[in-house]
Amino acid sequence: MSTTDAAPPSSFQVDRAAMRHLADAQVNVELDTGDMILNLGPQHPATHGTLRLVVRLDGERVISADPVIGYMHRGYEKLTEFRTYPQITTLINRIDWLSSFANEVPFMTAAEQLMGIEAPPRATYIRTVLTELSRIATFLLFLGEMGLQVGALTPAFYGFRDREYVLNLIEAATGGRFHPNFNRIGGLKDDLPWGWIAECRSTMKIVLDACDDFEDLVLGNEIFRARTRGIGIIPAATGAPYGVSGSNLRASGVDWDLRRDARPYLAYPDLDFQVWTHPDGDSYSRYWVRLQETRESARIVLQCLDGIPAGPIMAKVPRIIKVPAGETWVETENPLGQMGYYVISKGATGPFRVKIRSASFSNVSILPWLLRGVYVPDVITILASLYFILGDIDR
Amino acid sequence: MTAIPTLALSIGWGTTLAIKTLIILAIIPLGALILGYVFLLKMMSHMQSRLGPMDPGGFHGWYQLVGDGLKFLQKEDIMPAQSDRRVFAAAPAVVVLSTFLVFLVIPVGPDLVDKSLNVGVFYALAVSSLSVIGVLMAGWASANKYALLGALRAAAQLIAYELPLLLAVVGVVIQAGTLSLQGIVLSQQHGAIFGFGGLGQPFILTQFFGFALFLVAAQAELTQTPFDMPVAESELVAGYMVEYTGFRFLFFFIGEFGTAFGFAAIAATLFLGGWALPGVHGTWADILGPGVLFIKLMAVAFLMFWVRFTYPRLREDQLQALAWKVLIPLGLANILLTGVFKVAF
Fold first, then answer.
1. Does the N-terminal or the C-terminal CB of chain B have fewer CB atoms within 10 Å?
2. SS in 3 state form for A48-93?
3. Does A157 sit within 8 Å of B315, measured CB to CB?
4. Beta-carbon separation of B315 and A375 below 8 A
5. CB contact under 8 A, A227 and B232
6. Is residue A178 helix, strand or coil?
7. Residue A227 is part of which domain span?
8. Domain boundaries, chain B
């Protein structure tokens, strides 16, 4: 593998020319040419769906950018109040649709905590494997699509192609490519099919090879570096108050991964894995961190497959699930960042109130700060490198 | 000298002109389709593991291009309500016209050239930049902010890259001692490679630097990746073409690929010896010339499209910096060196 083991030292200077230019444009009345307001979205190829950015431009320089969200609001928090616990899985599947399985985990964990049951170890391990697989699927798409957003068409196809292998695995195990709906309170619907583990091992080799390809094709490209180095720098001290989380924050040098740092969930306490950080906080480092995390996820999957215990896949659960009264907060490290569910139960078959904390919502909230003073092409680079899913913003 | 001009003289000046014009009019869409088929559909599909374009019609997806063409013809011709209708309609024609004018001077055989101008290179590069006007017209008349941004980017870019393109060619012109494309081809037939005279002396050997510069600048002139800022799909959707549909869009498409065909032909003529094949002279050169030029041209086009499908795109300021700070000084240095060698040897 051609990866470097440690994050490279910060190697560029912050270019303040952008800010100076802005100041000049405002002071110099003679050159005042008036601003243009450009509506980026809600239908625009770079916004992954229906994010709308109202951008004020001076030439091609962004003066201010306002994200307008809500075009896809589906009211999941309210809907959960009218569903039973098993029914809710179907809804929360669709929040971050690229990594549906990872979405189910925190809610299931919350319900299990309230009921005081625990999934058997085999189910926990299978959940961990599937969570990491959905992380790999999401990141492979990112690794390709980031190339597309900075203008290289080819990596996008490689990303989709290699993700397909992972989705096939998820489909083989759960029956659903995108929306597995495989978790049950207290365990899983089924055990893994025969031969799946061997298949998964060989697919992880494909994933690791794909990561090497992306490192050569995208990360090593001069133009890609020129387009992403020093673009969209999020300092750790700014990112954290905005609620930026996940790989985006780790790319700013914050060593914070809920798989390791949160209340233990799934099989992560038993596993040995590294949390990748990068000191720079620019678009390049966000790509770099996600690339390393894809590899790390593949290694985690291989570890899980080696250590997967035998046994039942369902705990003893009553036929009609009634969750005792109580409140709980469960947060997990999802591919897009920190995802949390605050569940309040009043002892009925469904929750009284569910608050969903989704990562993308907080990640895009930094956009107005981040996009000031960059060029239009950089807007796209930054949007791509933050990597949000509209379903995860609008819920 | 050969039968062909004799035939042309016997059927009269007006008819010859009409035939030549028709041939060139046919070459542009034909060249565009060939490039579109070979590179955009086949080569790209192989490089990107695409399944779609390899499937329709059975063998190697031959039907894909026909299907794409038919689709364009069926599309509704939409004209934005706010648009400047006449300019909007004329813009694609201007782009194709500039492509057409380039083809007038490219020689495909010792006697096969439409207009053998003694300033052929100069003329070809001058008319090729006419397409900027069409692009600006399209961007302005579309009454669309994305189109306007794309058109302005295109104008800035095409003007900036016109210069390195010319400078890259000047080396060849100095070495050949003529501006005529036919003269440049002929001058490449004499000379020796390390004492071996059988192959003549294609200018790519002595002007390799100029060849590289020419390809980079041509890539920018054609607004192909890594210089495709004006049409940047992920940012400006399709830049100046964003409001065009159906047949008018097809015109832009033909203009784009036809110009790529033209630039590849110019590069093959200037640096690879054009229609000339070692050991072939006279009538045979006239007969084989177009085929030889076509093969050389496809080799150049392969390089262009290979880069196009591999690289990301530069930002507008980086693109300008590359033109003014790197390519133009290199082009001037190339001219200087060529001049020194020309005088010294």
1. C
2. CECCEEEEEEECCEEEEEEEECCCCCCCHHHHHHHCCHHHHHHHHC
3. no
4. yes
5. no
6. coil
7. 76-394
8. 3-344
Give pTM, 2 decimals. Answer: 0.82
B interface with A, Cβ–Cβ < 8 A, is: 44, 47-50, 145-146, 149, 225-226, 228-229, 232-237, 309-318
Choose the mutation target among B234, B236, B309 for the interface with A, i.e. most A CBs under 10 Å: B234
Instruction: Give the Å distances, CA to CA, from A340 to A65, A160, B186.
Output: 28, 28, 75
Question: 3-state DSSP call for residue A311?
Answer: coil
What tens digit of pLDDT does each residue of B219-269 get? 888 888 788 877 777 677 777 888 888 788 888 888 888 888 888 988 988
Q: Whose structure tokens read 């759960």?
A: A174
Q: Which two tokens stand for residue B132?
A: 């900027």
| CB spacing of A221 vs B149 below 8 angstroms | no
pLDDT of B195 = 58
In a domain, A306, yes or no: yes
Q: Cβ(B227)–Cβ(B319) under 8 Å?
A: yes
Is the residue at A80 inside a domain?
yes
Q: Is the peptide bond before A42 cis (omega within 30 degrees of 0)?
A: yes
pLDDT band for position A47 (cuts 50, 70, 90): low
Contacts of B69 (CB under 8 A, 6+ apart): B33, B250
Burial class of residue B11, CB neighbours in 10 A (0-12, 13-18, 19+): exposed
| Through-space distance between the first and last CA atoms of chain B, rounded to whole angstroms | 34
> Is A213 within the bounds of a domain?
yes
**8 Å CB contact between A378 and A231:** yes
Contacts with A249 (C-beta within 8 Å, 6 or more apart), sequence order: A234, A236, A239, A240, A256, A337
Point out which residues pair with A331 in neighbouring strands. A340
Q: Is B76 exposed, middle or buried (0-12, 13-18, 19+ CB in 10 A)?
A: exposed
Chain A nearest-CA distance from B119, in A, is: 37
**What sign does the dihedral B330-B336-B340-B345 (CA atoms) show?**
positive
Write the CATH number for A144: 1.10.645.10
Partners of A45 on chain B (C-beta within 8 Å) are 233-234, 237
- Reply yes or no on whether the pLDDT at A246 is more than 80: yes
Hey, CA dihedral for B33, B34, B39, B44, is it positive or negative? positive
| B273-327 confidence digits (pLDDT tens) | 878 777 777 777 777 778 888 888 889 989 888 888 888 888 888 888 888 888 8
CA-nearest of A225, A372, A351, A209 to A287 is A225
Indicate the burial class of B201 (C-beta count within 10 angstroms; 0-12, 13-18, 19 or more): middle
Domain count, chain A: 1
Report the distance separating Cα B235 and Cα A45, nearest Å: 8
Gyration radius of chain A over CA positions: 22
Residue A117: strand, helix, or coil? coil
d(Cα A341, Cα A108) in Å, to the nearest integer?
10
C-beta separation of B149 from B102 below 8 A: no
Distance between CA atoms of residues B293 and B276, nearest Å: 8
Q: For residue B33, what are the contacts with CB-CB under 8 A and spacing of at least 6? A: B65, B69, B257
Chain B residues within 8 A of A384 when measuring between CB atoms: 234
